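User: I'm writing a short methods note and want a consistent example. For Aspartate--ammonia ligase, I'll paste the sequence; you return only the structure tokens, no commentary, since I'll be parsing the reply automatically.
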Amino acid sequence: MHLIIPTEYDPKLSVRQTQEAIRYIRETFQDEFGKQLNLSRVSAPMMVDRATGLNDNLNGIESPVSFTMKDMPTKTMEIVHSLAKWKRNALGRFGFQPGEGLYTNMNAIRKDEDLDNFHSIYVDQWDWEKVITKEERTIATLQQTVRQIFKVIKHMEHEVWYKYPNAVHHLPDEIHFVTTQELEDRWPDKTPMEREDLIAKEFGCVFIMQIGGALKSGKRHDGRAPDYDDWSLNGDLIFWYEPLDCKLEISSMGIRVDEVAMAKQLKIAGAEDRLHLPFHQKIMHGELPYSIGGGIGQSRLCMLLLGKAHVGEVQASVWPQEMLDECAAQDIHIL
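Assistant:
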């Protein structure tokens, strides 16, 4: 457990006012986000059958919450980590065309998460996915989409300022792009997370590209599952967060693997056994559309826009009593 306590913290909004602001941000953002990216809202599952291979494996070491059902005793169900694979499958199933996409309110449990100011075992995000053509699988497409998302977040800053002028946390006006290799070249003696802090503090908002593969040093910047993001066409959207004097990641996204990238990345990850799973078979046989997608943290966005010190101020989850006590003593009101 790692907790940052800001000095002289002022929540600015009462718990009840915070709840009202949460509702406003979530409802307003998803409508504007859907319009900007041409996405339709769809319903999505909270659990999937393990045998489908649709669950997000994250870094490959986290284990999902699983259970069996009375009416399906031979099947093992898993609470989703995210809907990274399910969404792409849904694009094909629902007949979305290039330029069209979907988003959903995703609720997940990541029981192996390390708890701190930003991380909870309960994950709530807008999971989204959009059909693109093979020719659009480029850095230019990725950056254009990131800029659209940044534009919507900036729009939300102005909307929140209008309703809660004393509470809004002001954001930078521009976003910058950098690769993980450029970060390693610049700060070879720093850890990847230290590099992210440094670049976020320098620019205010950055999109860190190409996460998952090995750098020149032979080390990875960070882990990524090998079977949804193309490691050469993905990244994380992060802001420098003054209230806690550190970076805050809002979104992880990328252009998804095609059959070539998935086969290559599964081999690197030593996970070629997944190739027999239904989802992976569809990709290898060209039965799913090419796509770009990601997740945008709902609670993290609320935290960012309202300048909150702890994600527990904008979502209801479970926390160690020690953390609850320390937060209460510093006027950090955990829901």
